[in-house]
Design brief:
Elements: H1 8-26, E1 56-60, E2 69-77, E3 81-85, H2 86-89, E4 94-98, E5 104-114, E6 124-128, E7 149-154, E8 161-177, E9 185-199, E10 214-216, E11 222-230, E12 235-238, H3 241-250, H4 269-278, E13 282-288
Length: about 290
């Protein structure tokens, strides 16, 4: 019995194929793992570090800084440690946290709790009280993403209210104060800029009184202190997470450990804000010069 003779070209092709397979099998395989999926619309790209090239925005402070003012403060330690905006309490002779409409707790600036010209620029003040309230957790993960949603519970226009926003980037906030009979003063600091996306139903006009409120992320962790707004632009400006840690380090204080926040969404942020105010974790801070 004779097998049919294979064509020469088929034999040559088989030999060449075997040699190619042998060569490929000995080749080093250093392929990188599959690339991660693109970020979702909710998360966005990673926010770049602060830069001298960040755009600037100018915000005017009240012309009479010692007139009675009110803002928002929030607890970061059950022992009685609070954060608020510097410009709310700077120059105050008396600081009080309102427990009810007629009952207030005396508060004081923590030693080193008000940034000076020699320290890092920061519109944050650290307050201390004899008694405390349930603490809000500070965000330790400093990586932020464009498009992250923020929630700002506090006392806009002197009454309970809140706003929600989306992170759009970094800017340099220039606070100008031109009191009558004094030279115009300006202080600048890097901040986070947020686009307002919603607020308490029926709350119209500016958000004055929200200064000092916590900016919460979706996990209920504080990512910054609310500083100011630009109503025409629909922007809210806050400090960054590292600025809060620096302010506490200057005051030689630490936030509460092992604190977890309540998840916050666009559907429940009003209820979460009400709970925080009821528990006095977020309180109205009042400043008077007498």
């Amino acid at each position: 019995m004779h097998f049919p003779r294979l064509p020469d070209w088929l034999i040559y092709a088989a030999v060449i194929g075997a040699l190619v397979l042998a060569a490929l099998g000995r080749r080093e395989n250093a392929d990188a793992p599959q690339a991660p999926p693109p970020p979702s619309a909710e998360e966005g790209v990673l926010l770049a570090p602060a830069s001298a090239f960040d755009p600037s925005v100018v915000v005017k402070a009240p012309e009479a800084p010692l007139q009675p003012t009110a803002g928002t403060a929030f607890s970061i330690a059950d022992s009685g440690v609070w954060l608020t905006a510097r410009h709310v309490v700077a120059g105050c002779r008396k600081i009080a946290l309102m427990e009810t409409a007629s009952l207030a707790a005396e508060a004081e600036l923590a030693p080193g709790g008000l940034a000076t010209g020699a320290g890092p620029p920061s519109d944050i003040a650290v307050l201390v009280t004899r008694g405390g309230a349930p603490a809000l957790p500070l965000r330790r993960d400093l990586a932020l993403h464009v498009g992250e949603r923020g929630f700002h519970p506090g006392f806009p226009q002197g009454r309970a209210g809140e706003a929600t926003s989306r992170l759009i980037g970094r800017q340099t906030l220039v606070l100008r104060n031109s009191a009558p009979g004094h030279l115009a003063l300006a202080r600048s600091e890097p901040v986070l800029a947020w686009a307002e996306a919603g607020r308490t139903d029926g709350l119209h006009g500016n958000l004055a009184g929200l200064s000092g409120a916590p900016a919460l992320d979706g996990r209920g962790e504080v990512v910054g202190v609310t500083l100011a707004e630009a109503p025409r632009r629909g922007r809210i400006y806050t400090t960054s997470p590292d600025a809060m840690l620096e302010a506490l380090a200057r005051a030689h204080l630490k936030p509460a450990a092992a604190v977890t926040g309540e998840p916050v969404t666009v559907d429940n942020y009003g209820r979460v804000a009400d709970t925080l105010r009821r528990d006095l974790s977020v309180a109205q801070v009042v400043c008077r010069d007498s």
